[in-house]
Amino acid sequence: xxxxxxxxxxxxxxxxxxxxxxxxxxxxxxxxxxxxxxxxxxxxxxxxxxxxxxxxxxxxxxxxxxxxxxxxxxxxxxxxxxxxxxxxxxxxxxxxxxxxxxxxxxxxxxxxxxxxxxxxxxxxxxxxxxxxxxxxxxxxxxxxxxxxxxxxxxxxxxxxxxxxxxxxxxxxxxxxxxxxxxxxxxxxxxxxxxxxxxxxxxxxxxxxxxxxxxxxxxxxxxxxxxxxxxxxxxxxxxxxxxxxxxxxxxxxxxxxxxxxxxxxxxxxxxxxxxxxxxxxxxxxxxxxxxxxxxxxxxxxxxxxxxxxxxxxxxxxxxxxxxxxxxxxxxxxxxxxxxxxxxxxxxxxxxxxxxxxxxxxxxxxxxxxxxxxxxxxxxxxxxxxxxxxxxxxxxxxxxxxxxxxxxxxxxxxxxxxxxxxxxxxxxxxxxxxxxxxxxxxxxxxxxxxxxxxxxxxxxxxxxxxxxxxxxxxxxxxxxxxxxxxxxxxxxxxxxxxxxxxxxxxxxxxxxxxxxxxxxxxxxxxxxxxxxxxxxxxxxxxxxxxxxxxxxxxxxxxxxxxxxxxxxxxxxxxxxxxxxxxxxxxxxxxxxxxxxxxxxxxxxxxxxxxxxxxxxxxxxxxxxxxxxxx
Length: 628
Known about the structure:
The protein has eleven helices and 31 strands. It is an alpha/beta fold. A hairpin with a 5-residue loop joins β27 (541-549) and β28 (555-573). The relative contact order is 0.09. It is found in: Secreted, Cell wall; Secreted, Extracellular space, Apoplast.
């Protein structure tokens, strides 16, 4: 019987090579769960082989298995082993349920002469759009909203226009990966204005590039309000921005507010400009570890420029700013730093060659922060006001309410005593923000390159262009996976369920079970805690926690978590007392190795090793423990 099945499958694979119809059409009848050659059937057998208890593989875990049919599985495994997957990337991504960023936005016609209103629009390239326009306005509202990948290009947009207005409102809201390229935007423009309101809010990986933006422009003011607020791990580049501009004021208000690890680069910004007027208000305030780099900003021949930094990085957690050759060789420039860098955890600021070689430069530092270094700066025209002194010793003062920043998500962390029946708590947003993807079978992942040393090969597989958003996504994830483990931590990035099972078994043994919160009901609302059960009787135990990483296929960062208690709790509606969810919570008992600036301590008002910290297991994350 087994020999007949093998021959039939071989005959089917042989015949399929003579047809050009799609893979999905030729294999519909093989895609059922009962097919013994499907990845899901293979995974079920592997679970039974590796897990000693008699429980079936959890439904939430098997639902993430590869949807590939037997034929697709065989074909793509062979392509991967021959290093030729890239030539079939589109069909591979579609059949395997991956998140691939190889599509290129379509182009709009150039030289558009009428007002345009782009609402609920997505994925376009605007090349030479609005060139030489006289008056009028274009509006982008709710553009690329709630999409996985928002990518748009504005090359030579509004170039040589006169009195033309551009407005970007609620642009790419809640997108997962957003990239926009403004190259030669508003170049040689006279009058008019550009306005960015609520631009890329709550985006997971924003990537913005402003190259030669408003170069040679004449009085074309730009305002950035609510720009990349609440984003995660973003990057913005302003290269040769307003170069040779004449009276091109730029205002950044609430830029990068409450963002997590946001980075901005201003290179040759305002170079050779005349009467530039830039203001940074509440720039990266309340952000987590922001990094901003100003290279040759406002220097190299700038004339009568004025820059103001008010409440810049105020209330942020740590952070780092570098000003290299800022205002160097400028003429009659004026810069004022007010409430600069008052982060509640000390950051680092470096001013190198600040105002060096300038004429008539005036710079004032009023209430600036600890850990600032000034090297080779101009010895004339620089005044230092109130210098923020170090605060009280660690542990002598609780973090005040005003310092519990939005990025730390106070409701995300709680104390173990809150897990009591009848307690009313605020449930954080536990919904999954990542794009929907599936695992790959280990037979395929084992053939794919996965290392920073093989980045060129990784980029080739997924057709990632140089300096693209996808390149950044790939690089960031590879670097995180290769990061040295923390003391006492064992970690591994897994792209197949087989690898996840093996890692959990290697840490906890064969008698294990994976758990996650059942659904997202109750998110962002007050809920009541119902019955609470401690895993392993609520005793101190070890677990393996797995969190998603952004990658084309489903990838988890799994790590051992020693000295924890895991709980399963009924979540009830406060009014009706009806059960709406089953939540899984993990309490870290030993926090002595955590950073003092960890969001949990900011929210709860303590420090490493002094308290336990609990949190819910979010949607599609999971924790493995030994079986009860």
